[in-house]
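Deliverable D5.2: sample structural annotation.
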Amino acid sequence: MTTKATGPLGVKQLHNRLAVLRAERGTTRRQLAEAVGVNVQTVGFLERGDYGPSVELALRLAAHFDLPVEAIFSLAPFPPMSAQLYPSPPSTPASAPTAPPTTPATSTPTTAPSPAGAHT
């Protein structure tokens, strides 16, 4: 039986953000492969989750992107980037009363100004 976090035979799946990071930086698979010293196919296998990197390769990738390893690789699925960048506001319970919007109090003159030159 497989679950979302495990693959066949109960092996944990390693999730990564390599494709997102490459896209952010406008880098091709070939450019990334050359930068970290692997075959371009290795980058494809990594991005698809078909291959788990060695510790050394994970550290080279982290150094290349100037990020901590855990920002690139995780045993749990990453939340969508949009949810991390733009978290939804907490919802209010349906039974909670909502107060009407308040407007700042403005003072209104009680007497009209007298015309210029008028004597009282």
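Annotation notes: The helical segments are 18-25, 29-36, 40-48, 55-65, 69-72, 81-85. The first helix runs from residue 18 to 25.
The annotation will be released with the project's public dataset once the embargo ends.
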